[in-house]
Design brief:
Elements lengths: L5 H10 L14 H4 L3 E2 L4 E2 L1 H7 L2 H8 L3 H6 L4 E6 L7 H10 L6 E6 L26 H13 L13
Parallel strand pairs: 3-4
Antiparallel strand pairs: 1-2
């Protein structure tokens, strides 16, 4: 199974439980799953719970990309934020491990970025709307330099050092 934060699976089990049991969702996992709660935390936002338990989301949480990543021979740019609570940095480490045999792969983590590549204090989903920055300039520069320096002809090529 693809590495995930333990709270995600614990929380998923609790979210798919009947509404009367949703109080067991660990508070620390609310932001990880994008759940919002009203008042005394006993009434979950039904829209958020529905989206988190949708078939495509459950498939995504169970999907193991490692076999596919190991087969890639084309240029790959994999970026992540150290403060990303939705796709934890442990996932980026797994991507890096899978791409070690691909000379055209670049994997980079940005220490101060959240899931949206914004400079963030905590990385919480609730923080997204309070940040005026659309995307950290260093991330945009990394993407631009990778695109400009990557030979994508025939799916092969060298990539610049970020």
């Amino acid at each position: 199974m693809w590495p995930r934060e333990a709270t995600v699976f614990t929380c998923m089990d609790d979210v798919v439980a009947p509404p009367t049991h949703r109080r067991t969702v660990p508070e620390a996992a609310h932001d990880v799953l994008g759940l919002t709660f009203h008042g005394d935390d006993s009434k979950a936002d039904e829209g958020a719970c529905t989206s988190v338990t949708a078939a495509d989301m459950l498939w995504l949480l169970r999907y193991d990309p490692r076999p596919h990543l190991r087969q890639l021979k084309c240029p790959v740019l994999a970026l992540g934020g150290a403060k990303d609570l939705q796709t934890p940095p442990t996932n980026l480490a797994g991507v890096r491990e899978c791409l070690t045999e691909n000379p055209a792969a670049v994997v980079k983590e940005f220490a101060t970025c959240n899931h949206l590549f914004q400079t963030a204090a905590t990385g919480a989903v609730s923080e997204y709307s309070t940040i005026s920055e659309t995307m950290q300039p260093e991330v945009m520069e990394t993407i631009a330099q990778w695109i400009l320096g990557t030979d994508v002809s025939l799916g092969l090529g060298a990539t610049p050092e970020p």
